[in-house]
Amino acid sequence: MTLRAAFLATALMTIAAGPAVAQEAAPAAAAKVNVTQGASVSDAKGGAVGTIASVNGDVAVIDTGAVKASVPTSAFAQSDKGLLIGMTKAELEAAAKGASQQQQEQFLASLAPGVAVTDQSGGAVGTIEAIEGDMVTIATPNAKAKLPKNAIAQGPNGPVIGMTQAQLEAAVKSTTPPAG
């Protein structure tokens, strides 16, 4: 047998074995990955990424220690050492921070006059009266306060500030010069 014939025979055996190997591997690939709270997550090279902080339906939250990122459970693979994801810790953190920044920018751009503002407990504080550059005027029944946009966060029901209505009004009163 010549070298060329040996090479062709090896190539043909490899090609013929290919579908059988693929068929044997298919059930393993179709197996559902068990993504559970507390499980360790690594990247494809075995580097630590974080742990699963929670799982809600088909979304898992990975806690890297610096960020918490929501990832579809379909993005995980199972290894003998735990869960794998196709991103390094640095890549996941950068993606999460970028997404968070983009969401905050979209939220701040959505602020408009007439929108209700609440405190951290959901209590009514006032409404947005005006937006001028990076400052937002919030009107309460008894006062108007100008706050920087970065003092407003996105809450479950819209804009939230870190003060109650009474605290905001007291702060305005303490900074307002007496009339006269």
From TrEMBL:
The UniProt record lists the keyword Signal: yes
Signal peptide feature range: 1-22
Alphabetical list of PROSITE patterns matching this protein: TAT
Superkingdom, natural source: Bacteria
Keywords: Signal
UniProt key word Signal: yes
Protein name: Preprotein translocase subunit YajC
Species name: Rhizorhabdus histidinilytica
